[in-house]
Amino acid sequence: xxxxSVDNLLGIKHLTKGDIDLIFQTADxxxxxxxxPIKKVPSLRDITIANLFFENSTRTKxxxxxxxxxxxxxxxxxxxxxxxxxKGESLIDTVNNILSMKVxxxxxxxxxxxxxxxxxxxxxxxxxxxxxxxxEHPTQALLDSYSIREKLGTVKGKKVVIIGDILHSRVALxxxxxxxxxGAEVKLCGPTTLIPKYITKLGVGYEKNLRKALEWCDVxxxxxxxxxxxxxxxxxxxxxxxxxxxxxxxLLDSIEKDIVIMHPxxxxxxxxxxxxxxxxxxxIILNQVENGVAVRMAVIYLLAEQxxxx
Length: 310
Hints:
Blueprint: H1 17-34, E1 48-53, H2 59-70, E2 74-79, H3 91-99, E3 105-110, H4 115-120, E4 126-132, H5 138-152, E5 159-163, H6 170-181, E6 185-189, E7 205-206, H7 210-216, E8 219-222, H8 238-245, H9 249-253, E9 260-262, H10 275-278, H11 285-309
Parallel strand pairs: 1-2, 1-3, 3-4, 5-6, 5-8, 6-7, 8-9
């Protein structure tokens, strides 16, 4: 397979196993590039990319920007907080104004589910979904799977538990799709109030007991509690959440195998993970950050190649 089967990266559910393999093979190449003394390649010198972030983001935005710079693309950065969106301008008008500047690829984070899909039907540019509401975050899921593959050799046959606030997470859904596509087993663990009712229809298990979940898994992908998305109280207190679902070193050491610890960030240290777990040898959190640049370079490069072919 030499090209993606999709024209945009809107969600993992639209990808094939072949697409993921191609993205990972391309990311392997770019990982070598970003570890060289000269970290740039001229691949996208004639491509212009607009980063449209309608929600606050630090890590994802920086990761995309760095990936684009490593590929030598021209970059436009747009933040809704300082834009005409505050004056009532529509999404379509905002994007069309940016596209009139001859933009080839749009990287967009938006608070509403399906925003990237909506945009792809109305504008003539490649769309990369950098997170839409509590729906999908495809590049995060790709870098998570890539990091598991790098650490354990393969994703196929591995047991992965996703722990925490599944209800408000765009990372969880994309990870479920990506892991299952590659042949991994997935379980969820967290308060029942933070587990969506529909989720078991996706073929994932649920384990309420954290110790049992950790004893079962090879990899624990730990999510933060997203207080900013909560309009009601989903559990009695942070203290109780930490007692039931927080991972600390004594718990990890009492389990007789090495579990890989992951986290998409930002970490609420002392809540879902203690610092000695986050910074331990079992943690691949910093590897995820590095791999995020290589994976995003791969996605951008493969979509840009389609533009050149067209």
